[in-house]
Amino acid sequence: MGTLVDLERRDATAVVTLNRPQARNALSVALLDELSTVLSDVADDGDVRAVVLTGADPAFCAGIDLKELAAGERNLGEGADAVAAIGRLEVPVIGAINGVAVTGGLEVALACDFRIGSEHAAFADTHARVGVLPGWGLTVQLPRVVGLPFAKQMSMTGNYVDAPTALRVGLLTQVVPHDQLLPTALSLADDIASCHAPTQQRILAAYDEIAELVDGPAQEIEDRYHRRWNTELDPEAIGERRRAVTERGRAQRH
User: Fold this and answer.
1) Do residues 135 and 104 touch, judged by C-beta distance below 8 A?
2) Strand partners, 51
3) Residue extents of the structural domains in the chain
4) pLDDT one-digit tens code per residue, 42-74
């Protein structure tokens, strides 16, 4: 389906792949629009019992397309609905993290119910280095997953977190060899599909409703900061900082 987001059915599992590898699966407006459509199709398919969300190698997702942002072709708010749609799915979403998940890509990964990674998985929050404020739930979801001190460390430094560290802090539940990532995710999806669906869906809904007691008010705070910051953005300056962040990221991972 489409060229920017692939949808494949594997028995009762929908495999959704961000497919813009030449741009490290950066979240362009077109890709986000297509992701929204794909997720809507998945939500309407009553035979889907689990979703695996991954990226076309070599990256999971490099985040928002900063070239579009620097060129004034978009605003930061675009994409929030697509990311929120991941969390609204009534079946479990497994994030299969095959490479880097950076900033907006980290927010996409955090929207999954849980994440497994290959040894190539790595995470970074570079919002403060690029000069943009989170608006897709990062300040809500990241501390809930890794704890507030480690979340602050990630956001204040912009440093990369490798797969073993991500496993230790809870960003990943499992690390496997790269060529075993999709088979492992599909095996977990099969385990999910073997459970009693009505009970499983209600347990998942209970988890999400309980989380919303804290996440809902917290998201309103993030939204308020995000909206205010959007009025002060300098797209050209973001483009300059983006280049510096890209070079720093390459140096950190090699």
Assistant:
1) no
2) 14, 93
3) 5-193
4) 999 999 999 999 999 999 999 999 888 777 766
User: Around 109, how many Cα atoms within 13 Å sit in the side-chain half-sphere?
Assistant: 34
pLDDT band (50, 70, 90) for residue 198? very high
CA–CA dist 90, 231 (Å, integer):
35
DSSP 179-213: GGHHHHHHHHHHHHHTS-HHHHHHHHHHHHHHHHH
In contact, 142 and 122? CB cutoff 8 Å: no
> Measured in whole angstroms, how far is the alpha carbon of residue 218 from the centre of its chain?
19
Length of the chain: 254
Q: How far apart are CA 170 and CA 142, in angstroms?
A: 10
The predicted model scores a pTM of: 0.93
Right CATH for 5-193 from 3.40.630.30, 3.40.50.2300, 3.40.630.40, 3.90.226.10? 3.90.226.10
Alpha carbon distance 55, 99 (integer Å)? 8
- Between vectors from CA 82 to CA 105 and to CA 26, what angle results, nearest 5°? 35
3-state secondary structure of 227: helix
Q: Is 79 helix (H, G, I), strand (E, B) or coil?
A: coil
Token duo for residue 117 = 């990674």
103: nearest Cα among 130, 77, 78, 69: 130
| Residue 121 CB neighbour total at 10 angstroms | 29
Task: Please calculate the CA angle 185-30-129 and round it to the nearest 5 degrees.
Answer: 80
CA dihedral over 169, 21, 96, 103, signed as positive or negative: positive
Q: Which residue has the tokens 């609204």?
A: 88
